[in-house]
Amino acid sequence: MSVLVVGLSHRSAPVSLLERVSLSRDAQAKLIADALGAEPVAEAALLATCNRVELYAAVDKFHAGVAELSTLLAQHTGVGLEELTPYLYVHYEDRAVHHMFSVGCGLDSMVVGEGQILGQIKDALGLAQELHSAGRLLNELFQQALRVGKRAHSETGIDRAGQSLVTFGLEQLAGGPHVQSWAAGKRALVIGAGSMSSLAAATLARAGVTELVIANRTFARARHLAESLADAGSGVTVRAVPIAAMGAELAEADVAVSCTGATGLVLTAEAVQEALGGRTDRRLAVLDLAMPRDVDAAVHRLPGVHFVDIETLAEASADAPMAADVDLVRGIVSAEVAAFGAAQRAATITPTVVALRTMAADVVEAEMARLNGRLPELDDRARAEITQTVRRVVDKLLHAPTVRVKQLAGTPGGADYADALRKLFDLDQEAVAAVSRADASTGKGGHE
């Protein structure tokens, strides 16, 4: 089985299309289930964020896999295959691993080096594990991507090259990196209580807004977020309000950040204009981090409003400077891809080696049973000594070739050595396959 990824992101598709392919959690689960049911697919996982939708799979056929995954993405997003195809990218085997590790390090993010993607990869793995759609290969791929991402952030200054999408968005509103001086004394409204909204609220609290209001459809979640921010001791006045009070709070706000999971607009241009009323004493800064968008694009045209959305951020990030540390991270990714590939190739030989040793043990047992029948007068001590001697001879004969074949399996073309071993010892292919199935069922590779 080999890793295949078919997807699209802010690098390959316009924001307007990314908005249309956004999937709810339930829709993601259905897509994964259908992918797992496709003939060439043995494992499946989905990485879906506001900037990307990528379907990962373990497949035994490349062309059939690409066709199936592309068709499923079109069906589940509701975008026609002909319209979607020009924006899709395909990565296979080592290139797919390289892409996954680059994503985990933030190299493929809208804001290079941002760390939030690690949480999103962990969530994607969690969903795949919950659905039992990730086997050994995808479990190891996603877990290693998390480790590589953490390594990149701890061993390099990639954090200096980028920040979270929230910080980047606030910097665009502030007109530069001095968010604290810009936010000081302002009233802020955060719409939503999910992970991105929580990050936005915490960032605004640290930046020094005087009042922070959390509005959410589920009031209990808004209240929980408000209480956690108040307990953090930032000194900011934090309140939670039901979503119905959003208009009144917007009228008093200087900054509004929206990031909900709604499928339709949360703030229309008319609602924003009504909230502004006749106020002329101050501007309203609006940041929309949702995909699909929460705020009507027409808000751009309203006087007195500074509006930044995902599309604005995509354009701004294209001109963002790259830190020298990015090159160090690329080196880490390349080295980790090589190590992962070698480990995967080496792992392919393990079922063959296990099957060989099992066959050898069976031969020893059969021969000892035959000896017992021919020499029943042997006492237990002599029988045990003979058995141990035969086993040592077999182990010594098998040691060098099995160790060497594991080493060779880690090199390009290593699968050929496993095939040679099976042919030389006339191993039953079903016995080898049984070992592989047993490894998969025990979830080797572990969970994060």
Characterization of this structure:
Helix content is 57%, strand content 13%. α12 links the parallel β6 and β7. It contains 19 helices and 10 strands. Strands 7-6-5-8-9-10 form a 6-stranded parallel β-sheet, sandwiched between helices. It has a 4-stranded antiparallel β-sheet with strand order 2-3-1-4. The protein has helices at residues 15-20, 25-36, 62-77, 81-84, 94-104, 116-130, 136-155, 158-161, 165-174, 179-183, 195-207, 219-231, 246-252, 269-276, 310-317, 325-374, 380-409, 415-424, 429-441; strands at residues 2-9, 41-48, 52-59, 89-92, 187-191, 211-216, 237-242, 255-258, 284-288, 305-308. The protein folds into 3 domains: 2-162, Glutamyl-tRNA reductase, N-terminal domain (Beta Polymerase, domain 2), CATH 3.30.460.30; 180-317, NAD(P)-binding Rossmann-like Domain (Rossmann fold, 3-Layer(aba) Sandwich); 335-441, no CATH class. The protein is an alpha/beta fold and 448 residues long.
